[in-house]
Amino acid sequence: GRIPLSNEIVLRGHTKVASALAVDPTGSRVLSGSYDYTIRMYDFQGMNSKLQSFRQLEPCEGHQVRSLSWSPTSDRFLCVTGSAQAKIYDRDGLSLGEFVKGDMYIRDLKNTKGHISGLTGGEWNPKSKETILTSSEDGSLRLWDVSDFSSQKQVIKPKLKRPMRIPVTSCAWDHEGKRIVAGVGDGSIQLWTIKTGWGSRPDIHVEKAHTEDITGVKFSTDGQILLSRSMDSTLKV
After folding, report:
1. Helix (H, G, I), strand (E, B) or coil at 72
2. Which of 50, 66, 118, 195 has the highest CB neighbour count under 10 A?
3. What percent of the residues of the chain are helix, what percent strand, and what percent coil, each to the nearest 5?
4. What average pLDDT does this structure show over 160-181?
5. pTM (two decimals)
6. How buried is 167 (Cβ within 10 angstroms: 0-12 exposed, 13-18 middle, 19+ buried)?
């Protein structure tokens, strides 16, 4: 059946695939990111019939926009591109800073100050306005404090059958901001609960969840159901 629509508009502007969307919690602003390397910012309250964006940004020259996420208070947003460094912007698109990059020559990812390869995803904690999560092709997830761009809070390395670097292809918080889930390049889905003294060992590890890269993971509002999307042309619950 069709999705019931009362109103429909089409926002045009990008020249390549629109790869990321984020609606702020108040519902008044929308961000769109694209493989054309740009972000477009739309404001529904100030928009006229031309439906044009009020600002266009190019966060990292030559890098596709992979993920966009608003803070729970709608005053800032997180931008994740194919570079190794996530960026934070204010509500009007002014850059507030970018997180530090790690040293690619350090073998143990736990000892690097930041990601060393391109990012694949990222999300603002829905309950904490100072915490964000990022995932990367370097095989790690990281938690960051938004008030300090130079140091990370935690490095998480997914469980693998043998020591090697396999990309983490997607990540997400649950709606309470207490659990994180990741899609890993070996086809597994792994879940961690954030509690005192927790480490990299996942609480739940679903092997062979998909046969190709997992491009998206999402918790249901009540946190009981997990949805995953993959390049193997399937959605799984």
Report:
1. coil
2. 66
3. 0, 40, 60
4. 90
5. 0.90
6. buried
- Ordered by start, the domain boundaries in the chain are 65-236
209 closest CA partner among 192, 233, 184: 184
Give tens-digit pLDDT for 192-231. 998 877 777 888 888 888 888 888 889 988 888 888 888 8
CA separation for the pair 189, 205 (Å, rounded): 6
Tell me the residue type at 60. Answer: C
Q: How far is CA 51 from the centre of its chain?
A: 26
Q: Is 234 helix (H, G, I), strand (E, B) or coil?
A: coil
Superfamily assignment of 65-236 in CATH?
A: YVTN repeat-like/Quinoprotein amine dehydrogenase (2.130.10.10)
DSSP code for 10: -
Encoded tokens for 172: 């997400």
Name 192's bridge partners. Answer: 180
E strand or H helix that includes residue 120 = strand 119-124
Average pLDDT of the segment spanning 105-134:
92
Identify the three-state secondary structure at position 131.
strand
**Which phi and psi angles does 109 have, rounded to 5°?**
-60, -25
CA distance 129 to 147: 10
Q: Which residues on neighbouring strands pair with residue 40, listed in sequence order? A: 32, 56
Torsion 25-29-32-38 (CA) sign: negative
Cβ-contact 80, 92 below 8 angstroms: no
- Quote the DSSP letter at residue 225: -
Average pLDDT over residues 145-156: 91
Q: Tell me the backbone φ, ψ of residue 110, rounded to 5 degrees.
A: -65, -25
